[in-house]
Amino acid sequence: MSQLKVNSIVPVGGLPSGAKGGIIQVKQNIKTDTSSFDGSTGNFSSNISGLTETITTQSSSSQVLIVLHTNLSTSSGQRCTFRILRGSTVLSVGDASSSVIRGICPSICPGDNDSRSIPISMMILDAPGSAATHTYNVQGNGESSAGTIFINRTKGNNTSDTYHCGISSITLMELGA
């Protein structure tokens, strides 16, 4: 079997101005189980299990494209949001405005008497700045009356009803400079 190993492939005419290199590596974690967390705590207190992935970048000039997809519902139909962290560094949240909960994808979720879940997808481009191992985590939070936030499941008319489970995933792509 033949192999071709190169550091990069560049067109004969070169890369367009401002263009970066290609995708160096892809890492993905798919969450197939269901989980929940208390969305009414008023802060982003813990990582969502199964929505963590680690990548070891090959260059300090590499960027990491983070693609998050999740399905969520709440016990109360209130607003909730997510944020992505590299280690303890929070990435790309909305501007502060009084006591607003700052996240990257605010959503109004279906409530207690609704059997729908909301698919949420987002992408963020991060520049970690070092050739090292970087761990990306997802955290969730809701407004004070949000109650329980469910990942990968819908909620029926009472707490024991569940319908149609989905999947969630976090994908990391290292992009060359």
Write up what this structure looks like:
This protein is mainly beta. The protein has one domain (23-175): Sandwich (Jelly Rolls), CATH 2.60.120. It has no helices and 13 strands. Strands 1, 2, 4, 8, 10 and 13 form a six-stranded antiparallel β-sheet that branches. Strands 3, 5, 6, 7 and 9 form a five-stranded antiparallel β-sheet that branches. The radius of gyration is 19 Å and the shape is elongated. The mean pLDDT is 77.
Which helices and strands occur, and which strands form pairs?
Layout: E1 23-31, E2 35-38, E3 47-56, E4 63-74, E5 79-86, E6 89-91, E7 107-108, E8 118-126, E9 133-142, E10 148-151, E11 154-155, E12 162-163, E13 168-175
Antiparallel strand pairs: 1-13, 2-10, 3-9, 4-8, 4-10, 4-13, 5-6, 5-7, 5-9, 11-12
Which key terms come to mind for this protein?
Jelly Rolls; 13 strands; mainly beta; 5-stranded antiparallel beta sheet; 177 residues; single chain
CATH C-level label: Mainly Beta
Helix content: under 10%
Structural class: mainly beta
Distance between the termini: 30 Å
Number of domains: 1
Rg over alpha carbons:
19 Å
CATH architecture: Sandwich
Share of residues in strands: over 45%
Question: Number of DSSP helices?
Answer: 0
Helix-strand sequence: EEEEEEEEEEEEE
How does the overall form come out from the CA principal axes? Answer: elongated
List low-confidence stretches: none
Number of strands: 13
